[in-house]
Structures are given as C-alpha cells and as structure tokens.
C-alpha cells in the first residue's frame, strides 16, 4: 500500500508542477500572444533553452519570423513525439501540418525559412 501511496503523491506533485508551469505561460501573456498555438510555444521554449545554454545566438528577426521559426520547431517536436508513441493529448497538428504552416506563412507576410 505504501508504494501505491508514494506513487500517487509523486503523481499529484508532478501534476501540480505542470499546472503551475501552464499558469506561468498564461501569466506571461504567451498563450494569448501566440493565439494559443502550442507548437509555436514549444518551439519558442526550445529557442529560449538553446539561448540559455549558449547554443544559439540571439538574432534580430521580426516577431513574425520568430513565430514561424518557433512553430516549425514545435511541430517537428510534436511529430517526433507522435512517431515514438509519446504524442501530446489535444495535439491536433498531426495530419494538418501543411495547412497550419501555410497559415503561419501567410500571417508572417509570406516569409519562408528553411527548416
């Protein structure tokens, strides 16, 4: 019984932490600014991680270009998770990726960037 109780306690703690992280995203205004696009948010978080690790240099790209770059990177990560069977719940980007990218390209003023 103790093993189950410990497992439940750890799961609740992890769930609480994930909810708090989600709250930070909302509090920072990122969900609204990125129109609740999870792929773009994930790509942006990867870019932030790389900058903090010193793996990427900050550039002077326009916000539209950054959003497009982040979205593509996030979509690639979601696709990789789906390919390994670790897909994200609620991820509707699978199978509709091309259409979503075209919308982002149109929003970005026709800018394209190699992936």
Largest sheet: none
Strand content: under 5%
Number of helices: 5
Low-confidence stretches: 88-115
Distance between the termini: 50 Å
Shape: elongated
Gyration radius (Cα, Å) is 17 Å
Query: What is the chain-wise order of helices and strands?
Result: HHHHH
Number of β-strand runs: 0
Structural class category: mainly alpha
Portion of residues in helices? 55-70%
Mean pLDDT comes to 78
Q: How many domains? A: 2
Salient structural properties:
single chain; 115 residues; mainly alpha; 2 domains; 5 helices; elongated
How do you describe this structure in short?
The protein is mainly α and 115 residues long.
Can you put this structure into words, describing what you see?
With 115 residues, this protein is mainly α. It folds into 2 domains: 33 residues; 79 residues, no CATH class. It is built from 5 helices and no strands. The longest helix has 26 residues.
Ordered list of secondary-structure elements with their pairings:
Elements: H1 2-27, H2 30-33, H3 38-52, H4 63-83, H5 97-107
